Amino acid sequence: MSDVYLLFLRKERMIKKRAYKSYVRALPMLKKMGVSSILLRKSIGALEVACGIVMTLVPGRPKDVANFLLLLLVLAVLFFHQLVGDPLKRYAHALVFGILLTCRLLIARQPEEQPPEKRILSVNGDEQPLIHEAAPEKGKVKVS
């Protein structure tokens, strides 16, 4: 590897260690519980990857549960960043991702549209559907 890349990795590692130290100062219970910076990053990353796989591959209710777990994780990350006093540019991506997850969850949890009841008009003993309901409306696509 090149020296520039190694220098970049060393600098990133130092930034992450400094960030973890500030989190430990803000929440001393992390250190009391024996949570190291490596364990914290790996557990959060594993949870993100697992929820991402479930949201990608599994349909139905598990997808919504994974979305909710990711949303809780993003809220915890935002809480940590606010608690430490990080600038907005450090957690803006998490804020946007949280908004996207919230919108996806709200859209997924909306009730399905129920088809309207068909009204029948009695004419001379013959039952016929109303004229505006017999033909589909212009500009609307019939979804089956």
Key structural traits:
mainly alpha, elongated, 2 strands, 144 residues, two-stranded antiparallel sheet
Could you please describe the fold and organization of this structure?
- The chain has 144 residues and is mainly α.
- 68% of the residues lie in helices and 6% in strands.
- The chain has six helices and two strands.
- The protein has a two-stranded antiparallel sheet with strand order 1-2.
- A hairpin with a 2-residue loop joins strand 1 (120-123) and strand 2.
- Helix 3 runs antiparallel to helix 4.
- The radius of gyration is 26 Å and the shape is elongated.
Mean pLDDT: 79
Q: Which of globular, elongated, flat, extended, rod-shaped describes the shape?
A: elongated
Output the strand order for the largest sheet. 1-2
% residues in beta strands: 5-15%
Low-confidence stretches: none
